[in-house]
Amino acid sequence: MLNPIEGEIFYIDKPLKWTSFEVVKKVRARLRRRLDIKSLRVGHAGTLDPLATGVLTVCTGRATKRIEELQAGVKEYVAHLKLGETTPSFDLETQVDATYPWQHITRELIEKTLKEQFTGTIEQVPPAFSACKIDGKPAYKLARKGREVEIRAKTLVIDEIELLECGLPQEPTLVIRVVCSKGTYIRALARDIGEALGSGAHLTALRRTRIGDIGVNQCMSVDGLLELLDTEEMVSPDRAEQERLELEREHNRAMARARKAEREAQKRARKPRQSQL
C-alpha cells in the first residue's frame, strides 16, 4: 500500500527530451487526482538535463525532506563525446559554434589525460546553460537571452573515469564512464576533456546509470509509474493524517518518559548515600 502523503520515493528511468520537472509534474497531477486533493509536495533529487536519460529520484509528501540527503549520493554516468567541435551548451541543445583539429588525438593520449587530469579532486566551472543561480536567477535563463554569464569554479571529486569506447582514428568519438560526486556537470567535463586534449568536445548523449545503490535496471518507466499510481492501493489523506498524529503523540510520550527518567536520575544523584551521613 502506498502512502504518498507520508512520503514515497520512486526511481524513474527519465525519458529523452523530458525535463526533470515534467516528470515531477506528471507524478504530482496523477497523485492529486487519485487522492482527490488540491496540493501535494513532489520533488526530484538531482536534476537531469532534457537530453539526458537514466536514474531520476522522485519524492512525495514528507519524503521531500530527504531530497538533500538523496541527491548527495555518488552518481555514475555513461557519456558519449564528439571531439573537434564545441557548442555553447556543451551538448546538442545548441548548434556547433567552433571546430578544432582532432587528428593528433590517440587512445593512449585520452587514457593518460583522463587518469592524470580528471581523477580525484578537480575544479570545474559549471556551464552557463545550467540551473546555477546568478543574482537569484538560473544561469540558463540569462544564457538563452544571450547575456554574459560568469560562474565560479566548484571543487568536485571524480572517483572513477574510464574510457569505454574510442572511435579514433576513424571517427572523433569516445564513450566514457564517470563515477562522481554531487554537483558534477558531465557537459562541463566534456568541455574540459576537449580542451585538455588540445581540441574541443561536446556531449552527444548522456545516461545516468546509478545514484547511490540504485541502478538504472531498478528504475520504472514514467508510464509504468503512472500505471502503478492508478492501480495500487493507497492510504487516504484522512488516514495518513491520523497515522501522522498518532506517531507524533507516541514521539511526545517517548520524550516525556525520557525527561521523567532524566529527572529521577538527577534526584538519585543529589540524594546523599547512607555511608555519607
Outline the structure in words:
There is one protein chain. The chain is of the alpha+beta class and 277 residues long. The chain has two domains: 9-71 and 216-239, Alpha-Beta Plaits (2-Layer Sandwich), CATH 3.30.70; 75-208, Pseudouridine synthase. Helices cover 34% and strands 27% of the residues. The chain contains seven helices and 13 strands. It has helices spanning 20-35, 67-71, 107-117, 139-144, 186-196, 222-231, 237-270; strands at residues 9-14, 42-45, 52-60, 75-83, 85-86, 98-99, 120-124, 133-134, 137-138, 154-166, 173-180, 201-211, 214-215. The strands form three sheets. Strands 1, 2, 3, 4, 7, 10, 11, 12 and 13 form a nine-stranded mixed sheet that branches. The chain has a two-stranded antiparallel sheet with strand order 5-6. It has a two-stranded antiparallel sheet with strand order 8-9. A hairpin with a 2-residue loop joins strand 12 (201-211) and strand 13 (214-215). It is elongated and about 80 Å long. The chain starts with 8 loop residues before the first strand and ends in a 7-residue tail after the last helix. The relative contact order is 0.20.
